[in-house]
Amino acid sequence: MEVSKFLAAILQVKSWADAFGGDLYYIVTKYSGSLLLQKKYKDVEPTLKIKEVDGLELVKKFSEEMQSMLGRKVEAVERLVEAAEDADLYHEFNSSLDINYYNAVLINEKDDKDNYVELGDEFILEPNEHFNNLLVNTTLSDIQLPTNVYNKDPDILNGVYMSEALNAVFVDNFERDPTLTWQYFGSSTGFFRLYPGIKWTPDENGVLSFDCRNRGWYIQAATSPKDIVIVVDISGSMKGLLLSIAKHTIVTILDTLGENDFVNIIAYNDYVHYVESCFKGILVQADRDNREHFKQLVDELQAKGVGTVNKALTESFRILREFRNAGQGGLCNQAIMLITDGAMEDYEYVFEKFNWPDRKVRVFTYLIGREVSFAQNVKWIACNNKGYYTQISTLADVQENVMEYLHVLSRPMVINHDHDIIWTEAYMDSALFASQAQSLLLMTTVAMPVFSKKNETRSHGILLGVVGSDVPLRELLKLAPRYKLGVHGYAFLNTNNGYILSHPDLRPLYKEGKKLKPKPNYNSVDLSEVEWEDVDETLRTAMINGETGDLSMDVKVPVDKGKRVLFLTNDYFFTDISGTPFSLGVVLSRGHGEYILLGDTSVEEGLHDLLQPDLTLANEWIYCITDIDPDHRKLSQLEAVIRFLTGEEADLECDEELVQEVLFDAVVTAPMEAYWTTLALNLSDEAEGGVDMAFMGTRAGLMRSALYVGTEKLSNR
């Protein structure tokens, strides 16, 4: 009896569920019009061309277009290098030169008598959408100097005067390629010439800490990859201020390293020990995570005991030799940075055994403090090992003195005039924080060194500075449009170090209160951290090696802000972007991104249906390029498409394939409007409640919607 009651209850619940499901299906199909939409696409099927997407061909095509776009940026930078080197060649240094120039902090500033201050003449600034609505001057560059550099120093004045020749090239580059953003020249003397010119504002303490020579693009362009062992004296004599200066020196050296460099830190007193015992006997990549880890450990160092520098030097040479012989590390420059308050002897026997006669390892010495008793030995060590000696007496001296080692390491490259093009890892453009989607905030920089071509100084290897230009990654990704990738499809970029340049799952910002801030390691997120189904790192390895190929993976994709998960099979296609350290990947989801429908719709027929009031286009997609010509910037994508089709804007550049798909979708989906309107007119209060609106979207980004209730009655406004 009990069993039969239980079975009856189950059947009752099942009948309720079936009835509920049936009613829900009836309501949804009726009010959405999905059956009508299916029929309309079925009716035009005989006239359709159905094209299968070749993922490998697609990724190669995208890569070639990206290579062409990045090539134009390189050409712009090369023109700047040529102009800067020629300007220096014909410039004679004048120690009494006195010129006025546009100082980025002082421009438009006036004194008590309403006169413009020195170096602060009138500088016209206007908002420019291409530069994120910042106030800029697109006819001139201006000069920024860090607070610790004197703005009337003869080296600065001569460099500024010489580099004025770049103004015309900046403007010409921008006219040739209107997609260019910031262009700049960072001088080895410390000034930074930026185009277009902007107003710089010091921090709340009146300090401008930005020094172009500390930036990753400058350091990477000025030097080749390097293996560095930092050796620091923590004997008892290094207590107090001396240890603070030594720690600051290490941190400053670490800040000059990047992903292509390798590093370790050895501290010595009575015995030699690695500041991180897990890194004993090896060098580690100087990525952001490792650098920050080293900084924390260095901060904890304490001074005690007696210094035994010979053992620390021996250990440093051993690591560098092993790495060199194994073909590991940067495979270019090797150096030891010795930070101490003095050396009792010159340790010639150590260098004789490990570094002479080839001197494959340069030794840079930093004498900490004002004491000069042992300066001679410390200087001898550097000078006899192709290095550089400097004395650091105060915390304020650290920055300038540390930067000297970069000039020494760059000397062979300068003498040989190796104009290597470098591309940086992704970094944040802070001006975009509030205005763009998270994954599209990132930039990369293309940079090249500028050398002195004067015959009398050529053998000295003088680096004049570095020129560069920023490339927003969103501009690159425009060349891999979403509509060609289908639902759940996407494109991503990564570097030959395995770090992501751009990926839909890269979220570089976090919210602190109401402010968006970059995560500490936002530009050193590895590909394996987002494509985590790639457990064997097959995809990662192939892309790091710049290979071309494809593979498939079963993946789980979160949707609706992580509330649901889809189980999909994704096909990955990848190739390198020639001439850069980047690789491009394209992902197509099976069942979604394998085919494209090509309809043959006339402009007249499609245009009529595009003008219906319920129709919109995905405004973040690029149907037409509206962000270059100022006259086009106020147009929505739908307005731009209509003007393109009617011939109102003959100079509008549009994606004709995508526009054709939109025309086709507009015609096929046009009957939906009449269907929804008829339903709405016949809707009575007694009819099915709870249906607020109907909406639909197509693969080409076309959307239609209709309200079944007044806006005041919407359940989710």
TrEMBL record:
GO terms for cellular component: voltage-gated calcium channel complex. SUPFAM superfamilies: vWA-like. Coiled coil: none annotated. The keyword Disulfide bond applies. It is found in: Membrane. GO terms for molecular function: metal ion binding; voltage-gated calcium channel activity. Its main location: membrane. Residues 227-409 form the VWFA domain. It is a single-pass type I membrane protein. Keywords: Calcium, Calcium channel, Calcium transport, Disulfide bond, Glycoprotein, Ion channel, Ion transport, Membrane, Metal-binding, Signal, Transmembrane, Transmembrane helix, Transport, Voltage-gated channel. Pfam families: VWA_3, VWA_N. InterPro entries: Ca_channel_alpha-2/delta, VWA_N, VWF_A, vWFA_dom_sf. The keyword Calcium applies. Belongs to the calcium channel subunit alpha-2/delta family. This is VWFA domain-containing protein. It comes from Podarcis lilfordi.
